[in-house]
């Protein structure tokens, strides 16, 4: 199998990367009717599989689950999930041949083997749906010519997909049709009906491509989402301890700091996150972020370039074939870091203190979000995709660090993200060594000790204007506006 | 415990509610009952003793180190904490919640008492179950046991009987009567008939102030205070349905709901089986059964919220379930109120829009409402006495006011079937009477058929003549020796 993206001409590559448009609600007026009466068979019954299936069934569609024979025989959790919820469960051989639409909702790493097993059983002219395109784009999986291949990817965890549906709403969803596999020309109609069945059409659907989804997803997860947070955690903790802050406090400030400051990001973008700081601290964070962006820009470009060329996925798949030797070694190294092994203090840290004492954390998030977004858009990815894969997802990942530090983040994100995160971290830590030498406790750990909080008006106006006029803020405001109705009181 | 003195104390809760100038003295050997209408500040007073709120004037002296509070808010906090533990968004595994025995162990300073209470409240069979598998009543029992076995110096129980079935409530009352002689106790109650004989003092909250303090022995003063609680309600008139969008007509010859040989089970655990139920138009039903007997499960089979509705023979509003209908086609015929709905309704939304969302069966409002719908909603707000709170954030209402709004939300479209799953849970006497009177009139004056779930024999709705009782499981009815 060859990297699919690399088989395309530059013109085709750019066309695919630049595909991402917000669909008008009227495009979904037919609802689920295109799939009514058809047989939908879901492979895998984890959180996405189960919750999407529940929604599709409640929308009036015929849904059943297929699992590996061993999962059924041993009554594994996936089997229980499906049967407790009253679904028919059968083996591939029993259910796939009758399916009109097969929904592959298994983890990435299993795609090659699952698809190889399932496709020969699929009936002529049926449809195979993915929720992530790595297998098609990076592994170059080729699907039988008569089969339609689509992607429907809700941009939220499975539990939220279900909760929002039950409330009469939905979650933003990305759909795509694999152009190599659209023999009847009805791929889009199927994808739209599927999205409507999960409720996604109520919260907004982005029409994208397999390629744009994969390339932006990889870039986001290995740079700002996981890489920047890991590098930032290690550097900020070590700096505080070096300067005499108690390790228990340093550890707590970092572990919960990311979650707290990105909560502000989630609600009001980079602007709101910086608005939570005092005026002098805001200007400080802004300046630090500008410096960080200049230092890290080449690294973000390198990651994007390696993702585009396929060098990244080739390297990672070589490690898959080599029993994950690199991945496991890096994971162990992270687990033994000083930050990871420190015990938190019992001392309470107020919500505002995380901002006031974490100016550098704020600067790192700002720099990472903007760099990832800028790099993606300059590589031909549309602003909407770039927003979802950078700013939108950052709070979700920060939340995992709040649970059990980097261990939790790395063990719960995909192997693909974890591998990329370590690559980033290994390059970024030495890159920031000189920058970190100048850092003191005023921006991480203790906060600015200000007698008064005066600032120069003109400088503040400049900073505020720069914050608010960044393109990620503009697209963010629009996209968050679509979702405003679903915002919860926190 | 030494004497606790609350002196000229004013405290703020989230900038939206304050307690004012509280003067109060708790002495060893006393047992206080705090009463008041919804939103009067009863719960805030309890929470203040447990350390909540920001004291801006006055002070509290002599508060012991270990104060335990059980309240609807602490129950909600535990539910929220369990929600936060849910990693399923990342791990892609379905999370059943922390096991009951772990939650109990966190606070336990008396394992022997814990074992007895677990037995007494019939939680023994659930020790290995995950928190999320518990029913509302079981969750409440878990919180009560946690508080009781932590050997508190002062125990504040905010509506301890809410959510418990009659048998469990009776057991708790007997146990508290013994425990009150050992542990100083403050009970915050909504129902006058729940005031225990061992209460030595009654306090009445009103508008954030402790307006009356009465020793139980002073019968006249006590009587006057309880009368104050029974305020007269105004004449009710039910706003009409939306003339522009009447409820879709049904075939009057068919039942609204018909379940044949209904069965719900999780693995080998059968919640109920062989259940036949037919609801004809105009037949009002009361549904009862102990905690965990499956009342909410059964209702969810009707509403389509229980996934096993697809494995059952269910006919609702002209649809045989599982034939390609969507749940929205079912829900348009149903109005629904329950305590879990209230916990789910966590969206940022105004009171008015909560009512409007009743026309669309959504939690949150995602459509543009019509003028006639807005006009109907204004009438409902007047009926509830909330004209001026139309634009207030729903989350800022007291628990009881939220419930009234949700009941009105369920009724705005005059559905064919109105399901009230413990509609009085957490309400004070006055609001309880208002709700019951309202539902009684709906039974009698509209074409809506009512299914009503309730533990309290006292909350009678006129017009209900049909009763369905679900049998409980063995653990529920088992009893054990009482050791305070």
Would you spell out the secondary-structure blueprint of this structure?
The complex is a heterodimer of chains A (490) and B (484).
Chain A: H1 10-17, E1 20-22, E2 39-43, H2 47-58, E3 62-66, H3 69-73, H4 77-84, E4 89-90, H5 92-95, E5 101-104, H6 111-118, E6 127-130, H7 134-137, E7 148-154, H8 158-166, E8 173-177, H9 187-198, H10 200-203, E9 205-208, H11 210-242, H12 247-275, H13 279-309, H14 311-321, H15 325-335, H16 338-341, H17 351-356, H18 359-378, H19 383-392, H20 394-412, H21 415-431, H22 433-437, H23 457-469, H24 471-483
Parallel strand pairs in A: 2-3, 2-5, 3-4, 5-6, 6-7, 8-9
Antiparallel strand pairs in A: 1-9, 7-8
Helix pairs in contact in A: 2-8, 2-9, 11-12, 11-13, 11-18, 11-19, 11-20, 11-21, 12-18, 12-20, 12-24, 13-18, 13-21, 13-23, 15-21, 18-19, 19-24
Chain B: E1 4-13, E2 17-26, E3 31-35, H1 42-49, E4 54-61, E5 67-70, H2 72-85, H3 88-91, H4 100-105, H5 111-120, H6 136-148, E6 154-158, H7 166-179, E7 185-188, E8 201-206, E9 209-215, H8 219-229, E10 257-266, E11 269-279, E12 285-288, H9 295-303, E13 313-316, E14 319-320, H10 327-331, E15 334-337, H11 339-344, H12 351-357, H13 371-384, H14 399-411, E16 417-421, H15 429-445, E17 449-453, E18 466-469, H16 474-477
Parallel strand pairs in B: 3-7, 3-8, 5-6, 6-7, 12-17, 12-18, 15-16, 16-17
Antiparallel strand pairs in B: 1-2, 1-4, 8-9, 10-11, 10-13, 13-14
Helix pairs in contact in B: 12-14
What does this structure look like?
The complex is a heterodimer of chains A (490) and B (484). With 490 residues, chain A is α/β, with parallel strands linked by helices. Chain A has helices at residues 10-17, 47-58, 69-73, 77-84, 92-95, 111-118, 134-137, 158-166, 187-198, 200-203, 210-242, 247-275, 279-309, 311-321, 325-335, 338-341, 351-356, 359-378, 383-392, 394-412, 415-431, 433-437, 457-469, 471-483, and strands at residues 20-22, 39-43, 62-66, 89-90, 101-104, 127-130, 148-154, 173-177, 205-208. Chain A has a 9-stranded mixed beta sheet with strand order 1-9-8-7-6-5-2-3-4, sandwiched between helices. The N and C termini of chain A lie far apart (47 Å). Mean pLDDT of chain A is 93; it is low at 485-490. Chain B contains 16 helices and 18 strands. Chain B has helices spanning 42-49, 72-85, 88-91, 100-105, 111-120, 136-148, 166-179, 219-229, 295-303, 327-331, 339-344, 351-357, 371-384, 399-411, 429-445, 474-477; strands at residues 4-13, 17-26, 31-35, 54-61, 67-70, 154-158, 185-188, 201-206, 209-215, 257-266, 269-279, 285-288, 313-316, 319-320, 334-337, 417-421, 449-453, 466-469. In chain B, strand 8 (201-206) and strand 9 form a beta hairpin.
